[in-house]
């Protein structure tokens, strides 16, 4: 019987297989950041162990880093200690680090791909659930806990229990105003936050194949919000073109050998998935969340649902609690929800195409009075590219704040936070209670919806702008 | 890791689904560089409400958390497991756990037990009616027991044999893996040259 893409990558990394034991998998790339690594390095020290493969390991600073005044000492002493701890650990153990202020610094899941370190057929891990992002290249990439970080540092392997396979096929052609973010939000609303549990999802179908690499990363990024172990997309010419000539892409004969291998990384015709889901692209629309988990979403044209409409008692209770927390009433049209803050950034939507798409909507327009808009590029490289294209000027002229690279308001570990009761439209990945700041209320949206929302002051899509002459989105 | 064989303790019924790791331990707690001292951050936002179940005097000292489905979703932060353990929990029962949280819990000796939702409903009813009721989570016999008479709950649970063995013995994964260092070296010898490296040379 044929094998799926995920099974092929898995099989190519089995170091040891024994009945009744988890497979021991080799890890091709280990990404580190300041939050989930200190206790792992501490563990290595206590047991007198070293990092087995510093040449397959790379670190950056992202979760805690400020996005203003980055040339000044970090105000929060605890944040500062954590960054200093990472610097010391990387120096002591010989790990390459891109610290705050470095040209290659940025959100770890933006940095790996832009350096060309993320390639098809690799196993990629990081102590961060959004490691699933790298699956866009046809890599098997998953988030791990700190004990596993220590395990990978010490052994470059992980014992892994087998997974199940799920195909999510998006058939046909996307409507012009529908983005990758809308696709993945619609998928999560359909299968639920636990729907992918135990699965590696492969996204396929015409609508997926037409997406740019960056849009594919947005989709795979939020696989974890569907509960999946990982998300993958088979590598193709789009993937190869993105990788060609990146700093760590193979060169010369190695490139040819790599591409020959990468071309084998497709699910066989006769492979069988454990579960299949099919969506019609034509039925998709701009999508936003109304609740406090990423599965609580609806098309922008809908209204806040009535909890009583949920058959499942735990879903009904969750909806009641969500509406209470979000300060929303059933039946309110989503377009009438006013926001205080708009956040464009994160490992979900902080890449150059995302900034282009937001800027295209904002060009020649103004952020509404009383609305604060933060634009936080995913990496220093993304920021430099944006400046090169004049996007920073578009944002600033519209009245938005143009910030330095980092995770920022996605999780509010740095000073970029919502105040209690404040409401945001955010291009990030989680609308959990308090995620963006204690008492903060988050609506997950695409960069285009974020920008239109900033202009109108309430949830909106670019089509709602009266002078809706907006360029076709790049990449979608 | 501390071994887990069997544990008996009082329970905290937590009637919520989708308890994500941001709720279990908010991000601002993640700046610590140790594995301890997270107990005060556990469910921090909800604990501001004096009526929150964890704040009730009769729940003090409870060690078994009985939660709704999709517990531990979201961020991979192992701090969520440490916070539950630092607070004193030895086991968590739910009808469904997020994968990463489950993996983290079993690596730290916090037993996460999957039981069907009707059984969880039964445990909620029992432990809400009687805060003193003891719940036993027995990894040797692979079953959860609580209560007596008609309302007694006795439910078997599954856990893969390898994970169970490691918990029962309190074994450290890294030591186990390093027994196979020859296999790792052999695999490394056959890796293709085109695979990227982060360091030159």
TrEMBL record, chain A:
<feature type="region of interest" description="Disordered">
    <location>
        <begin position="416"/>
        <end position="442"/>
    </location>
</feature>
<protein>
    <recommendedName>
        <fullName>3-isopropylmalate dehydratase large subunit</fullName>
        <ecNumber>4.2.1.33</ecNumber>
    </recommendedName>
</protein>
<keyword id="KW-0100">Branched-chain amino acid biosynthesis</keyword>
<feature type="binding site">
    <location>
        <position position="410"/>
    </location>
    <ligand>
        <name>[4Fe-4S] cluster</name>
    </ligand>
</feature>
<keyword id="KW-0432">Leucine biosynthesis</keyword>
<feature type="binding site">
    <location>
        <position position="347"/>
    </location>
    <ligand>
        <name>[4Fe-4S] cluster</name>
    </ligand>
</feature>
<comment type="similarity">
    <text>Belongs to the aconitase/IPM isomerase family. LeuC type 1 subfamily.</text>
</comment>
<dbReference type="GO" id="GO:0046872">
    <property type="term" value="F:metal ion binding"/>
</dbReference>
<dbReference type="InterPro" id="IPR050067">
    <property type="entry name" value="IPM_dehydratase_rel_enz"/>
</dbReference>
<dbReference type="InterPro" id="IPR004430">
    <property type="entry name" value="3-IsopropMal_deHydase_lsu"/>
</dbReference>
<feature type="binding site">
    <location>
        <position position="407"/>
    </location>
    <ligand>
        <name>[4Fe-4S] cluster</name>
    </ligand>
</feature>
<comment type="subunit">
    <text>Heterodimer of LeuC and LeuD.</text>
</comment>
<dbReference type="GO" id="GO:0009098">
    <property type="term" value="P:L-leucine biosynthetic process"/>
</dbReference>
<dbReference type="InterPro" id="IPR015931">
    <property type="entry name" value="Acnase/IPM_dHydase_lsu_aba_1/3"/>
</dbReference>
<dbReference type="InterPro" id="IPR033941">
    <property type="entry name" value="IPMI_cat"/>
</dbReference>
<dbReference type="GO" id="GO:0003861">
    <property type="term" value="F:3-isopropylmalate dehydratase activity"/>
</dbReference>
<keyword id="KW-0411">Iron-sulfur</keyword>
<dbReference type="GO" id="GO:0051539">
    <property type="term" value="F:4 iron, 4 sulfur cluster binding"/>
</dbReference>
<keyword id="KW-0479">Metal-binding</keyword>
<keyword id="KW-0456">Lyase</keyword>
<comment type="function">
    <text>Catalyzes the isomerization between 2-isopropylmalate and 3-isopropylmalate, via the formation of 2-isopropylmaleate.</text>
</comment>
<comment type="pathway">
    <text>Amino-acid biosynthesis; L-leucine biosynthesis; L-leucine from 3-methyl-2-oxobutanoate: step 2/4.</text>
</comment>
From TrEMBL, chain B:
<keyword id="KW-0028">Amino-acid biosynthesis</keyword>
<protein>
    <recommendedName>
        <fullName>3-isopropylmalate dehydratase small subunit</fullName>
        <ecNumber>4.2.1.33</ecNumber>
    </recommendedName>
</protein>
<comment type="pathway">
    <text>Amino-acid biosynthesis; L-leucine biosynthesis; L-leucine from 3-methyl-2-oxobutanoate: step 2/4.</text>
</comment>
<comment type="similarity">
    <text>Belongs to the LeuD family. LeuD type 1 subfamily.</text>
</comment>
<dbReference type="InterPro" id="IPR033940">
    <property type="entry name" value="IPMI_Swivel"/>
</dbReference>
<keyword id="KW-0432">Leucine biosynthesis</keyword>
<comment type="subunit">
    <text>Heterodimer of LeuC and LeuD.</text>
</comment>
<dbReference type="GO" id="GO:0003861">
    <property type="term" value="F:3-isopropylmalate dehydratase activity"/>
</dbReference>
<keyword id="KW-0100">Branched-chain amino acid biosynthesis</keyword>
<dbReference type="InterPro" id="IPR000573">
    <property type="entry name" value="AconitaseA/IPMdHydase_ssu_swvl"/>
</dbReference>
<feature type="domain" description="Aconitase A/isopropylmalate dehydratase small subunit swivel">
    <location>
        <begin position="1"/>
        <end position="117"/>
    </location>
</feature>
<comment type="function">
    <text>Catalyzes the isomerization between 2-isopropylmalate and 3-isopropylmalate, via the formation of 2-isopropylmaleate.</text>
</comment>
<dbReference type="InterPro" id="IPR050075">
    <property type="entry name" value="LeuD"/>
</dbReference>
<dbReference type="InterPro" id="IPR015928">
    <property type="entry name" value="Aconitase/3IPM_dehydase_swvl"/>
</dbReference>
<dbReference type="Pfam" id="PF00694">
    <property type="entry name" value="Aconitase_C"/>
</dbReference>
<dbReference type="GO" id="GO:0009098">
    <property type="term" value="P:L-leucine biosynthetic process"/>
</dbReference>
<dbReference type="InterPro" id="IPR004431">
    <property type="entry name" value="3-IsopropMal_deHydase_ssu"/>
</dbReference>
<dbReference type="GO" id="GO:0009316">
    <property type="term" value="C:3-isopropylmalate dehydratase complex"/>
</dbReference>
<keyword id="KW-0456">Lyase</keyword>
């Amino acid at each position: 019987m044929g094998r799926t893409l995920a099974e092929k990558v898995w099989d190519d990394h089995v170091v040891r297989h024994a009945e009744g034991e988890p497979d021991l998998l080799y890890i091709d790339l280990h990404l580190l950041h300041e939050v989930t690594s200190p206790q792992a390095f501490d563990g290595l020290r206590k047991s007198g162990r070293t990092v087995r493969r510093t040449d397959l390991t790379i670190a950056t600073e992202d979760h805690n880093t400020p996005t203003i005044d980055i040339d000044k000492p970090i105000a929060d002493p605890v944040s500062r200690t954590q960054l200093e701890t990472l610097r010391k650990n990387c120096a002591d153990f010989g790990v390459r680090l891109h610290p705050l202020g470095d040209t290659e610094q940025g959100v770890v899941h933006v940095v790996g791909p832009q350096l060309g370190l993320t390639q098809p057929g690799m196993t990629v891990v990081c102590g961060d659930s959004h490691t699933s992002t790298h699956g866009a290249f046809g890599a098997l990439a998953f988030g791990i806990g700190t004990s596993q970080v220590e395990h990978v540092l010490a052994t470059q392997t992980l014992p892994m229990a087998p997974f199940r396979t799920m195909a999510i096929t998006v058939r046909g052609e996307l409507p012009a105003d529908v983005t990758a973010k809308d696709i993945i939000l619609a998928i999560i609303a359909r299968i639920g936050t636990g729907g992918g549990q135990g699965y590696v999802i492969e996204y396929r179908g015409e609508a997926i194949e037409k997406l740019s690499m960056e849009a594919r990363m947005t989709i795979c990024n939020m696989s974890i919000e569907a509960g999946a172990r990982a998300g993958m997309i088979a590598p193709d010419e789009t993937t190869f073109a993105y990788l060609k000539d990146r700093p760590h892409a193979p060169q010369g004969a190695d490139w040819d050998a790599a591409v020959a291998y990468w071309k084998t990384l497709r699910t066989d015709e006769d492979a069988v998935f454990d579960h299949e889901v099919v969506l019609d692209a034509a039925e998709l629309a701009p999508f936003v969340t109304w609740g406090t988990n990423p599965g609580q979403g609806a098309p922008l044209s809908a209204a806040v649902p009535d909890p009583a409409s949920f058959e499942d008692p735990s879903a009904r209770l969750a909806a009641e609690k969500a509406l209470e927390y979000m300060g929303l009433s059933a039946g309110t049209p989503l377009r009438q929800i006013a926001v205080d803050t708009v956040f464009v950034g994160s490992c979900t939507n902080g890449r150059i195409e995302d900034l282009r798409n937001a800027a295209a909507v904002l060009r020649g327009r103004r952020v509404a009075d009383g609305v604060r808009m933060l634009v936080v590029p995913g990496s220093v490289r993304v920021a430099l590219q944006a400046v090169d294209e004049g996007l920073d000027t578009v944002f600033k002229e519209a009245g938005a704040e143009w910030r330095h690279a980092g995770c920022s308001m996605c999780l509010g570990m740095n000073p970029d936070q919502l105040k209690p009761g404040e409401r945001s439209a955010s291009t990030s990945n989680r609308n959990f209670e308090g995620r963006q700041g204690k008492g903060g209320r988050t609506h997950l949206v695409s960069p285009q919806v974020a920008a239109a929302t900033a202009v109108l002051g309430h949830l909106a899509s670019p089509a709602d702008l009266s002078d809706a002459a907006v360029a076709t989105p790049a990449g979608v | 890791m501390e071994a887990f064989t069997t544990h008996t303790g009082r329970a905290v019924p937590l009637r919520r689904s989708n308890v994500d790791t941001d709720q279990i331990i908010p991000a601002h707690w993640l700046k610590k560089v140790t594995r301890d001292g997270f107990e005060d951050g556990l469910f921090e936002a909800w604990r501001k409400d004096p009526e929150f179940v964890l704040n009730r005097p009769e729940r003090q000292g409870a060690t078994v958390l009985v939660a709704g489905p999709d517990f531990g979703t979201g961020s991979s932060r192992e701090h969520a497991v440490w916070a539950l353990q630092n607070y004193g929990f030895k086991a968590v029962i739910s009808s469904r756990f997020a994968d990463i949280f489950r993996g983290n819990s079993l690596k730290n000796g916090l037993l996460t037990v999957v039981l069907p939702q009707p059984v969880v409903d039964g445990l909620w009813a029992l432990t809400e009616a009687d805060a003193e009721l003891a719940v036993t989570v027995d990894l040797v016999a692979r079953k959860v027991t609580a209560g007596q008479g008609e309302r007694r709950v006795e439910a078997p649970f599954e856990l893969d044999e390898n994970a169970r063995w490691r918990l029962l013995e309190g074994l450290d994964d890294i030591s186990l893996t390093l027994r196979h260092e020859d296999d790792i070296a052999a695999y490394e010898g056959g890796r293709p040259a085109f695979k990227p490296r982060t360091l030159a040379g």
